[in-house]
Write a structure and sequence with these properties.
Subcellular location: Cytoplasm
Helix content: 40-55%
Subunit structure: Interacts with UvrB in an incision complex.
Protein name: UvrABC system protein C
CATH class of the largest domain: Alpha Beta
Strand content: 15-25%
InterPro entries: GIY-YIG_endonuc, GIY-YIG_endonuc_sf, GIY-YIG_UvrC_Cho, RuvA_2-like, UVR_dom, UVR_dom_sf, UvrABC_protein_C, UvrC
Distance between the termini: 80 Å
Shape: elongated
Keywords: Cytoplasm, DNA damage, DNA excision, DNA repair, Excision nuclease, SOS response
Number of domains: 5
Largest sheet: 8 strands, mixed
């Protein structure tokens, strides 16, 4: 693969949060970093003189840049930590430590304890997090314990030992921080109910706790204990502003591979995310050049085998967007909602960003490739014999037959060519007849192009359904152009595409680039036509006001407007000023007419 210059890689980076990775000429990892704005942060390495020699050496060695987009800056922080531990880049010396982010553990035991930890042990316990700050964990833990007294001792509180009186309550019981389950003062049923409430708090459901605190705060305030009430209010503020989900995915999701695919007519992009203990430890996007019209299912199956072999993955579960064939012993999950669906959406988002990045690079290196791809897709979607590099679209505008006009807009290579736009005053039609108007304007347009030996379009788009399309076809028949130019109609209601002599319309995918270009043409023709119609109607209203005066015709009205610029100024003008333009007799009539009003 040809090496892409760094300036092009930089220009194609997204502006959202994420993690970036620098690689040298041997594709060895150099550095992993996080950013709130990927494009701004990565560009800063190349746009200034660095004080430290290590950074200058790093920048000189960078040959390629990869990135992973994530929803928030907090997710970027966690992902950066995971990738550094997994990849151990040469220049991440300061981050090569054993630091890990804290979790809240609900111990798998009778009368479970709830405590912070930096180690996730697979013993059946529940883990919530990870959190980006131990301070946040402690605030949340203190908050929970102030509402629900929990034990802190590590005794084995089996029913046999409690009934045998093996334990005695400690100071925590006398301070009111524990209800004494060790001596049977609190039942297991009541304790488990508290644990269920705590699970809701940690998952983000603070309603019951906030109601409890507000009642407690009001009671303290009524007793004039304002300092204690303020402390309770601080905890309410923490609850209301706290964001419990600081992890990228649910911590219960572990040892899972996630795959998604985005494709067009020439390429497919497969994104791979590897998850361990609820966090992403690896991301990779593969670009596949299509040889034939392969289906996404076939391409994804091939890519999964290749990627899992390359990264030595032994995960026993896959999250994928649709059902695929895999090796025996591997579970395939197609998420529909919840945390699993969110991580699949994140994978798809990374594939889309990679695809867009490639497009942006191609636009800089080879501007025609993007256009050629769209033209080829339109030829396929609309069943054309040639790529529609020159398209023209027609639209009529009138209000109950008044001031009928038409517009023709021209697109070259999928983009507007505004210098070739044309307006038409309808000359042969009286009354509101869209069909006859369409027939007239199409005939006039292509009669002139034929006479002037101008190139004809490959595609004509008519704004309307079968009726307007049939009218346009009559004109093409008269000019001998039927079959030489492709022509379609687009109806607004359901965006149906109509073809000549085909009663069944074509419905393109709403996300189709071909449909978007046709809609763009239709909307541009409507905008261009309605603007002309409004201007003409406005001008007509002004002229009629002047031409209603005895002795004032169209030429006189235009002469006055050219001099005075508006009807208002004509009304305010003196007889002498008017006389200089139209003579004393007409000036007196105009002056008297406006004074009578």
């Amino acid at each position: 693969m040809t090496e892409i210059p760094l300036n092009i890689q930089l220009s194609a980076l997204p502006t959202g949060p994420g993690v970036y990775q620098f690689y040298d000429s041997n594709e060895s990892i150099l550095y992993v970093g996080k950013a709130k704005n990927l494009k701004k942060r990565v560009s800063s390495y190349f746009n200034k003189n660095h004080e430290y020699g290590k950074t200058r050496v790093l920048v000189k060695k960078i040959r390629s840049i990869k990135h992973i987009v994530v929803p928030t800056e907090s997710d970027a922080l966690l992902l950066e930590n995971n990738l550094i531990k997994e990849l151990r880049p040469r220049y991440n010396v300061l981050l090569k430590d054993d630091k890990s982010y804290p979790w809240l553990c609900l111990k798998n035991e009778r009368f479970p304890r709830f405590f912070p930890t930096r180690r996730v042990i697979k013993d059946g316990s529940e883990y919530f997090g990870p959190y980006t700050s131990m301070k946040t964990v402690r605030v949340l833990l203190d908050l929970i314990k102030s509402v629900y007294p929990l034990r802190t001792c590590n005794y084995d509180l089996s029913a046999e030992k409690i009934n045998a009186g093996k334990y005695k309550v400690c100071l925590e019981y006398h301070l009111g921080n524990c209800k004494g389950p060790c001596e049977g003062f609190q039942s297991l049923t009541e304790y488990d109910r508290q644990i269920d409430d705590i699970r809701q708090i940690v998952k983000g459901n603070f309603k019951s706790s906030i109601t409890y605190f507000k009642g407690q705060m009001k009671a303290l305030a009524d007793e004039m204990r304002f300092e204690e009430a303020q402390k309770i209010k601080d905890k309410i503020d923490v609850l209301e502003n706290y964001q419990v989900k600081t992890t990228i995915v649910n911590p219960k999701i572990s040892n899972v591979d996630v795959f998604s695919i985005i494709s067009d007519n020439a390429f497919a992009y497969v994104n791979f995310l590897q998850l361990a203990h609820g966090s992403i430890i690896r991301s990779h996007t593969m670009e596949i050049k299509k040889k034939l019209e392969e289906q996404d299912e076939d391409l994804l199956e091939l890519a999964i085998v290749e990627i899992r072999e390359r990264f030595k993955s032994d995960s026993k579960e896959l999250y994928v967007p649709f059902n695929i064939a895999v090796s025996p012993g591997i579970k395939v999950t197609i998420p529909k909602l919840g945390d699993k669906k969110r991580i699949l959406d994140l994978s798809e988002r990374n594939a889309k960003f990679f695809r867009q990045e490639r497009f942006n690079q191609i636009k800089i290196i080879d501007p025609d490739r993007h256009t050629n791809r769209i033209m080829a897709q339109m030829k396929k979607d609309i069943r054309l014999s040639a790529e529609p590099k020159h398209i023209e679209c027609f639209d009529n505008s009138n209000i109950q037959g008044s001031n009928p006009v038409a517009a023709c807009v021209v697109f070259k290579d999928g983009k507007p060519s505004k210098k070739e736009y044309r307006h038409y005053n309808i000359k042969t039609v009286t009354g509101p007849d869209d069909f006859a108007s369409m027939e007239e304007v199409v005939y006039r347009r292509y009669k002139r192009l034929q006479e002037e030996m101008q190139p004809l379009p490959q595609l004509i788009v008519i704004d309307g359904g079968k009726g307007q399309l049939s009218s346009a076809l009559k004109s093409l028949d008269l000019l001998g152009l039927r079959g030489k130019i492709a022509i379609i109609g687009i109806a607004k209601r359901l965006e149906e595409i109509y073809f000549p002599e085909d009663p069944i319309p074509l419905y393109l995918d709403k996300k189709s680039e071909s449909l978007k270009i046709i809609q763009y043409l239709r909307n541009e023709a409507h905008r261009f036509g309605i603007t002309f119609h409004r201007n003409k109607r406005s001008k007509g209203a002004i002229n009629s006001e002047l031409e209603g005066i005895d002795g004032v015709g169209e030429k006189t009205a235009q002469q006055l407007l050219k001099k005075f610029k508006s009807v208002k100024r004509i009304k305010e003008a003196s007889v002498d000023s008017l006389s200089q333009e139209v003579g004393a007799s007409k000036a007196k009539k105009i002056y008297d007419s406006f004074r009578k009003e």
